[in-house]
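Deliverable D5.2: sample structural annotation.
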Amino acid sequence: MLKRSLLVMLVAILSFGLFAGAAAAGSHDGDDAMVRVLHASPDAPEVDVYVNGDPAVEGAAFQDITDYLALPAGDHEVAVFPAGEGGEGDPVVEQTLTVEAGQHYTVAAVDLLENVRLEAFADDNTTEDGMTKIRVGHLSPGAPAVDVGLVGGDSLFEGAEFFAVTDYLDLDPDTYDLEIRAAGTEDAVLDLSGTTLEADTVYSAYAVGADADELEVVLVADDAHSMPADMPQTGMGGASASNGMMLPITLVLLAGGLVGFFFLRSRVQA
């Protein structure tokens, strides 16, 4: 049976060390990009992230998400190590990250540890005045393709596969009884009843966990801001375009997952 979902509002922004080229979100200027990291690899350990040889994130664990970090526009060398190794030895992964000035990005570590990789996608934290919007990310490597919709009603998102991040959907602020269903069926795999979407807020709902039996949803809420002039391009060495439902381009940056700000969690009981 499904365990009825409980909407838990909490602030879980981690107090990670920010050094050198990475700065706290409140101290950036128009020449910077804003980048946050989401740990969505269910069996990966805690990790430290180094940017251009300097520590930027420390002790990130599964389901943690950093606040936005300011990085100057351009290319940055990123290396990920098991937490506490101080950047010594061989990194779990290292890659070049390219970001644009004035743009926001989420970089997610996805898949199981043996196949872990990073995916980067652009964040659009804007809404029409008084409205809300939401997108869905399928970050569970063992779960089937899914639809997300109203309980007993129409689908809002259809056919999302691992790894996919949908476009945003504009909605009136309200409390919605939502569920995740196996794609093309009425079979619910996760009950998200009582999901409250507030005005002037942008939401990202990430399904995480090794498979459907361990599925959880992390709901990240961002205050809306003014519309950017252009949507960003995201690049990382060796990146390739992903599923057509997504904005993202593949990255390789972190070996674990990070999400928290404000989140909803429901579990499927075996």
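Annotation notes: The chain has one domain: 6-265. The longest strand covers residues 188-197.
The annotation will be released with the project's public dataset once the embargo ends.
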